Amino acid sequence: MEPVNQVMEPVSKTAQWTAAARAMESERPDRIFHDPYARLVAGETGFALLERYAGSAVVPFVLVRSRYMDDAIVRTVQERGIRQVVLVAAGMDMRSVRLTWPEGVTLYELDRPALLETKAALLAENPPQRSAGAVSRCRAVPVDLAAAWQDELRAAGFDAGQPTLWVAEGLFFFLPEDVVRGLLGSLHELSAPGSVLIGDMTSQATLKNPLAKGFMRVLMEDGNPWLFGTDDPEEFLASCGWVTRELLQPGEEGASFGRWPYPVPPRSVPNVPRSFLFTAGVRSA
Ligand SMILES: C[S@@+](CC[C@H](N)C(=O)[O-])C[C@H]1O[C@@H](n2cnc3c(N)ncnc32)[C@H](O)[C@@H]1O
Q1: What digits encode the pLDDT tens for the residues 109-143?
Q2: What pTM value is reported for the model?
Q3: What is the chain's mean pLDDT, rounded?
Q4: From 3, 158, 171, 283, which residue has the greatest number of CB atoms within 10 Å?
Q5: Alpha carbon distance 165, 199 (integer Å)
Q6: CB atoms < 10 A from the CB of 194, how many?
Q7: Ligand 1: which of 5, 8, 14, 69 to mutate, most ligand atoms within 8 Å of CB?
Q8: What residue numbers bound the domain in which 60 lies?
Q9: pLDDT tens for each residue of 231-268
Q10: Which residues of 6-43 are buried (b: 16+ CB within 10 A; e: fewer)?
Q11: Residue 72: half-sphere exposure toward Cβ, Cα within 13 Å
Q12: Which atom of ligand 1 lies nearest, measured to the CA of 62?
C-alpha cells in the first residue's frame, strides 16, 4: 500500500525506480553501498518500474552513480568543512541516515510536494533508526525546481552566506535545457565561496541513440521523457558559473566499482552515448 502515491507527478515515480535499483544492490553480499531503507521507499511502484525499464544501461549507471556520489559527499564535507548540504531533487534518497555525517550538518531535501509527502508517509510506517552518524538536521522543502524555489529554501533555514554542497543526482535529463541552465545559474547565485556541486548528466547522443529508442519511448509514454543532454558538460557548467574539478564516465577509474559492464568510449570519439559524473566548484571572482 503506497499512501498518496497516486498524486505524484510521473517524473517523481522514477525516484522509486532508482530506489528499487539501490535496494537490489544493497541486498547483494558484495554490495558497493548499503541503503537499508531503499526497499521501503521504492514501494511496489519502484519494483514495477525496475521491470518495465529492464535492459537499459541506466541501472548500472544508477549503482555507479550512487557510490560515486556517496564517496564524493563524505569526502567533501570532511575535507572542506561544509555544513550545509542541499539534495536538489532528493527523491527517495536516504543519505541523511545511511551516511556518516560530521556534527552540525543541516541537510535540505528539495523535491516535488507529493513526492516528499509520499516519502514521509512510507517512512512513517517504519521509521529509520537514527544512528550516531545520522545528519543533525534534515529538512524537507517542497518546491518546483522549474519555477522559483529559492524563497522556500531560505525559509527552511538555508544561509547563502555559508558554503553549500549541492547534490543534483538523476535530475538534469528530465528538464528542458533552458530550465537546466536557469537552475545551475540559481545554484551558483546562492553559492558562497567554497561551495561544491556534485551531479550527473548524459550526452546528446544518448537521447538520439537508436539502441536507446525503446527505452526513450517508454519514458515518454510514462510522462517522464529525457529532454536534455550535452556532449560538453565542462563547457555547459562553465557557462553557468561552475568550474569542473572532476569529470568521469562510468567505467573509468574512480567510477566503476565492478558494476560497469560496458566499454568506456574515449572523449575524443564524437556522437557516442555516454554519461558523466562530475564535481564542480564556484569560480572565484
Ligand atoms: C530519477 S529521480 C532522482 C531522485 C534521487 N536524486 C535519486 O537519484 O534517486 C528524479 C527526481 O527529480 C524530481 N524532479 C523532477 N522534476 C522536478 C521539479 N520540477 N521540481 C522538483 N523536483 C523535480 C522528481 O520528483 C524525482 O524525485
Answers
A1: 999 999 999 999 999 988 888 788 999 999 999 99
A2: 0.96
A3: 95
A4: 171
A5: 11
A6: 15
A7: 14
A8: 56-282
A9: 999 999 999 999 999 999 999 999 999 999 999 999 99
A10: eebeebbbbbbbbbbbbbbbbeeeeebbebebbbbbbb
A11: 28
A12: 8
**Which three cell numbers, joined as nine digits, stand for 79?**
575535507
Q: How many domains does the chain have?
A: 1
All residues at 6 or more sequence positions from 202 whose CB lies less than 8 Å from its CB, including other chains: 172, 173, 226, 228, 229, 273, 274, 275, 276
Residue with cell 553549500: 164
Best of 4, 7, 8, 12 for a ligand 1 pocket test (most atoms within 8 Å of beta carbon) = 12
| Amino acid of residue 222 | D
> Cα(192)–Cα(82) distance, rounded to whole angstroms?
11
Instruction: Provide the angle, in degrees to the nearest 10, between the axes of the packed helices 58-80 and 10-26.
Output: 80
Dist. CA 147 → ligand 1 center (Å): 14
**Which residue in the block uniquely carries the three cell numbers 555559508?**
162
For residue 171, being part of any structural domain is answered with: yes
Kindly tell me the sign of the dihedral angle through the C-alpha atoms of 155, 156, 157, 160: negative
pLDDT in tens, 35-73: 999 999 999 999 999 999 998 889 999 999 999 999 999
pLDDT of residue 7: 87
Q: Is residue 22 part of a domain?
A: no
Q: Is residue 8 part of a domain?
A: no
- Determine the Cα–Cα distance for residues 15 and 66; give it in Å rounded to an integer: 13
